[in-house]
Amino acid sequence: MTLIQRFNRALAQQNLLSPDQTIVVAVSTGVDSMVLLDLLQRVPVQQRPQILVAHVNHHLRAQSAEEAAFLTDYCATRSISLKIAEWSADQHPQNGVEAAGRQFRYDFFAKVMATSGATAVLTGHHANDQAETYLMKLARGGDLAQLRGIQASRPFQTGQLVRPLLTFSKQQLRDYASEHQLTFYEDVTNQDVTLTRNRLRQRVVPELMQVNPEFLSHVATYEQQLSTLLSAKAQMVATLLPTVQVQQQLDLQQLSKLPSQWRLPVLQAWLQKHTRQLVSETKLVPTYHWAINSQSASSRLPLTATLELVKAAGMLAVLPVKKRVKKLRPSEKIMVDLDQWQKITATQSVGVFRTSPTVASQPFPLLNSDMPLVLRPWQPGDQLKLKHGGQQLVRRVLIDQKVPRSERTAVQVLVNAHGTVLWLVGHKFSYRDPNIARAQTVFLALKHTELKGVHLKR
After folding, report:
1. Is the domain covering 3-211 a CATH 3.40.50.620 domain?
2. Per the confidence metrics, is the pTM higher than 0.70?
3. Which CATH architecture has domain 232-320?
4. Residues whose CB falls within 8 Å of the CB of residue 362, separated by 6 or more in sequence, listed in order
5. Is the per-residue pLDDT at 457 higher than 90?
């Protein structure tokens, strides 16, 4: 099957082979988009959709004006409708130009789509782009669902965003352009290897293709397999979710009866349904442990500034945060994620880490039942456990260490899910037997951004 035949089949799969449809073609004048535009013009007239070219002059390179002029002449000669948008230099941000440029382009494509009644926007993304996207996501880490690459088609505005060249390699597109003597422009910024994607494009992907020439097709196969697995997972979660719901609440006993590998996905789906926010399964682990912890039968957990999780009588509900007479300060209660620094004052950041981030970090045995951990200002009645038994009031520690009265209100404590104080930050740790069963060792760390040489006191 020739490249043209494969391309026409890709259009047929997206139901785009119809002269009754209008499609917007994103053309940058690079080889990818010029091949895309040429292939569309080779579709038989009785099947060819109406073509409307959309081009953005980003004013980022000296040749931008030349490219726009070339495309204007190209479309006029072939009686193709053309829309050009100008992203002038005074609109460019000082940072994040690439992301801002992409946002401008897709906003423009959406406007063209709306005014023309087009059913789809087509872009020239190809198999090398897919591989680069996968490698970037692998390097960044995250949940498996976040590893999904570029989709051949996805909803966009009132229609679809379609990538019909996704199965073709960059070299195949270059060979086609050479064979059909297509004019195109090279973007000189693509050679700038200080940019992550360019570094992958110029160095990493070619090396991997040397290891295995089928690398790009393997990436495409992985994408298909991952899409199938995630779709199957979504279907299973949709089946399981009604079995743990009672009206708008989540039945924690029924959740615990699910196979262990399905509990987090079901909790995630339930939360997303009631908060309209997607939280990764990895970040939900502390919330899950809090929810199933039988020692805190009734408690609350902040989710956002306006929503909180409320646990009572074995049920979980998402409710609006109740208004309080006293307005809480933003620093009054902070959820603690493992392996992340949390700024608590202008000069102090604290964190709980699985590996020691500083030489002064304090090892501490942590139980699953401790989660979630919270930072808050100390309160009257807060106590620290001592090594040989007994308790010591936090207030007494601050007095003994001669902390000025004016500074005491700013001192924070780290508490577990039961409200037990584990650490008077910057001053003293609560004692816990390092050999306690089923505990993992974490490190409580404090860093001071202005004062040097500050050490934690035991």
Report:
1. yes
2. no
3. Up-down Bundle (1.20)
4. 423, 429, 443, 444, 445, 456, 458
5. no
